[in-house]
User: Which sequence fits this backbone?
């Protein structure tokens, strides 16, 4: 585990992370999205000041029979968040303009709008390649809170893939911008480990190659 | 007059944020509509040297003010619902303000049906 000096999260976000950490959410689940860049900034010395107003978490799906560990829906509402459902039936939480959302690995080939996560009493939006992040993670300790985040190499490869799948150009640019910032801290051995853990389709390999080309990132570092 | 060149990347991010806020606002408004209307008041009735407090919900229905008595058993549930409704309304205000701010930055014309500021 890596120790960090104080990070000044907004009080509401700090409270949320503290609550999630206390109930053991970060034992297997992760903080993802642009807020991770804030932690990388402290851990690895990169510079990326921009973070969005949505706080995303990747949920590791436990076997269906697993009992509820904590009622996160109630805990998050008690922190002052308001829960709401999107048109697709995905549960989200909001407070003072921040939006909290949970993601899970999409079961192969099936189009599901929301996945119930009994272990935490909430539902998550299923997306492909979330397992890239959940399978390669590290924990950091900030002010006595333990938070699990993806390793930069997994985050980098995930962003390379999702960038090309974005409908909005600006989001794609933002993903690739994060990748550019991460390049100096990437470890080739860990990159290879992440790449070898997956069986990417021909299409995904092409997407990766396209994103690498845009960043002028050598393909051989990804053993493509 | 000096004209600042449009930055499409920044503009796109603002547009995306504006759309996100509109989506959340829509979902929150839908949720808020399901909560009971009105505010909870308490009245005290004196009867044979004893004071009996009872709660009632004041709401406007079809232009008339209606007082509805709330039985003791229903009170905690209703109070919780009203609290959640107020939280929801507060959040709606945050999003309305943010949308107005972003639209101002983007110099977007107000859409038909949008609430007046």
Assistant:
């Amino acid at each position: 585990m890596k120790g960090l000096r104080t990070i000044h999260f907004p009080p509401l976000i700090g409270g949320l992370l503290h609550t999630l950490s206390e109930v053991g959410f970060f034992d297997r689940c992760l903080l993802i999205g642009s807020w991770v860049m804030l932690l990388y900034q402290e851990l690895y010395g990169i510079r990326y000041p921009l973070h969005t107003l949505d706080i995303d978490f990747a949920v590791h799906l436990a076997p269906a029979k697993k009992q509820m560990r904590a009622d996160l829906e109630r805990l998050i509402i008690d922190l002052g968040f308001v829960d709401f459902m999107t048109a697709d039936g995905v549960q989200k939480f909001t407070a003072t303009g921040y939006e909290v959302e949970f993601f899970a690995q999409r079961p192969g080939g099936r189009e599901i709008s929301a996945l119930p996560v009994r272990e935490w009493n909430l539902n998550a939006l299923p997306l492909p390649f979330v397992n890239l992040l959940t399978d390669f993670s590290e924990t950091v300790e900030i002010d006595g809170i333990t938070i699990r985040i993806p390793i930069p190499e997994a985050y980098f490869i995930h962003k390379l893939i999702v960038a090309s799948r974005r409908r909005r150009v600006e989001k794609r640019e933002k993903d690739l911008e994060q990748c550019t910032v991460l390049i100096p801290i990437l470890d080739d051995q860990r990159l290879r480990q992440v790449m070898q853990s997956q069986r990417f389709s021909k299409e995904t390999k092409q997407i990766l190659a396209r994103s690498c080309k845009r960043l002028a990132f050598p393909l051989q570092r990804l053993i493509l | 007059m000096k004209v600042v060149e449009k930055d499409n990347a920044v503009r796109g991010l603002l547009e995306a944020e504006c759309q996100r806020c509109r989506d959340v606002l829509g979902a929150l408004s839908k949720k808020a509509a399901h909560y009971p209307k009105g505010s909870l008041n308490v009245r005290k009735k004196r009867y044979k040297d004893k004071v009996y407090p009872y709660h009632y919900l004041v709401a406007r229905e079809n232009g008339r003010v209606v007082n509805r008595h709330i039985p003791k058993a229903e009170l905690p549930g209703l109070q919780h619902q009203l609290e959640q409704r107020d939280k929801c309304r507060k959040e709606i205000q945050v999003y309305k303000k943010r949308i107005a701010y972003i639209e101002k930055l983007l110099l977007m014309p107000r859409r038909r049906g949008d609430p007046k500021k």
Remarks:
- The mean pLDDT of chain A is 90.
- The longest strand of chain A covers residues 98-105.
